[in-house]
Amino acid sequence: MQTIIGAIGRRTLHALNQLATLLTFAYQILRIIVLPPKKGISLVRRITLEQIYFTAVQSLPIIILFALLIGSMIIIQFSRLSGQSPLGNYIVLIFIRDLGPTLTALLIILRSATAVTIEISYMNVLNEMDALEMSGLDPLWVVCVPRLVGITSAILCLFIVFDITAIVGGYAVVWLVTYINLGDNLFQIAKTLSAADIIVGIIKAVLFGITITVICLHHGFKTKQHITQIPVAASKASVQCLGSCLVISAVISVLFYL
Amino acid sequence: MKRIELTDYSFNSNKTGRPFQPFNFSMVPGDVASISTDSADDALDLFKALATLIHPLQGEYRYREIKLDFSNYRNLLDAKKKIGFITSHSALISNLTVRENLLLMNAYFTNSFSRQLNQRTQELCRLFSLENKLELRPAALTDHDYRFVVTVKELIKKPGLLLMEYPEKFVGIMNFELFNTLLSGMLSSGMCVVFLSEYKDFIETFSKRELVISKGTIQEIRVGGSTG
Question: What are the b/e assignments for A55-70, b being 16+ CB within 10 Å?
């Protein structure tokens, strides 16, 4: 019994320690964003734009495809219930409040977060972080800040694209390929949609962006010695990112809607 | 004015975790010290400690008379950029081309994205036959060329302290004579050098002092003098 309690205690302490490390790391990066050094502004701006291009622009075709598929699937399924309850309510409930930010985050985790973990791990294992420092460059400023800003703004933009494509595109697909009568559901959505729904979506997207980036960077920086640690770091980071995003989503939904 | 001064300085080995005994070491401009050791790992640890990449267990490190504050890595960046670090631990940024690697400090400190290498960099690139490899990424370079680029990158920093592990490997036998001339010029302009080499001629030509690392202790021997 004592062993079990001891194991639970150790795991809890380990989890709390890891959470504290992540929060400290996030604080350090956010502090540099608020109080940026004068040196390297142009370089950081350029790397940030590159990150936005890699994460947002290159992900657009995949996000649009997924949004169309998921949007049309859900609209077809829920159109069967439209006689019993207004379809617009469900759409707002599902896409804008929860599914939009969460699925966008999931796609970013699959596509970009693992890439960031692997990239940072490689840089660490191949002594590139030390090389940056030996050139007088601050890795937190030139590596972490562009990724945090880039990925967070990418998730925010992609979440908006996902929601619009899923709802409007989903309706268009259903209208084009099926005979289901959708009535005035788009107007119902407009009526049901409140400012709080949009704000919650934006808050979730921003928090997901920060969480995903910080976790990936943290796992990347933790990989120090061996190249064989890199896949383990990438796997741990992606699972942790997904888990954290789901917890954040649940907490925000509870705070706003209960 | 001392370029570097380490007082009662001790640090842990990066590989074994074993601590080095506290030691004192200082260099004035133009000083050259060679390292003598049975273990290249120990020498690399000393290089990393001198480059402030390993934090001390105790003691004080002064660079140009200013005490370095190890409490935050950001406080060390100014000193680091003035230290040339040419060792097996040195690296290039793999997602940048050779040219971008050579221009990285310039881009950071001057906010300029000019792709033009300055005259000194061009001369060094010519010396190491890198002119046609400037648009390649580090992964596309041979081991020799990779080391040449690392050497050029560190030399164009105009370092106050140059740390070199096996310069004969980094510079290459073909370029060694030219490099020696270059090094003499840099020494006369006040640069300090600590190196580890197997080349007796090179050691005899340049080294005025010898650092002997043995079983976790670092002792200094003046060449032609007594143990210090």
Answer: bbeebeeebbebbbeb
pLDDT in tens, A149-195: 999 999 999 999 998 898 888 888 878 877 766 666 677 777 778 88
Q: B157–A135: do the CB atoms touch at under 8 Å? A: yes
Residue B169, judged by CB atoms within 10 A of its CB (0-12, 13-18, 19+), counts as middle
CB contact under 8 A, A42 and B76: no
Find the residue in B nearest to A127 (Cα): B91
Q: What is the model's pLDDT at position B227?
A: 43
Distance (Å, rounded) from C-alpha A99 to C-alpha B163? Answer: 55
CB-based contact A135 B89, cutoff 8 Å: no
Integer Cα distance of A225 and A223 in angstroms: 6
Q: Residue B138 contacts by C-beta under 8 Å, 6 or more apart in sequence?
A: B92, B93, B94, B96, B98, B101, B146, B149
Q: Which of A134, A144, A221 to mutate to test the interface with B (most CBs of B within 10 A)?
A: A134
Q: For residue A122, how many other CB atoms are within 10 A of its CB?
A: 16
Please state, rounded to an integer, the average pLDDT across all residues of chain A.
88
Provide the ipTM.
Answer: 0.91
Q: Which phi and psi angles does B10 have, rounded to 5°?
A: -140, 145
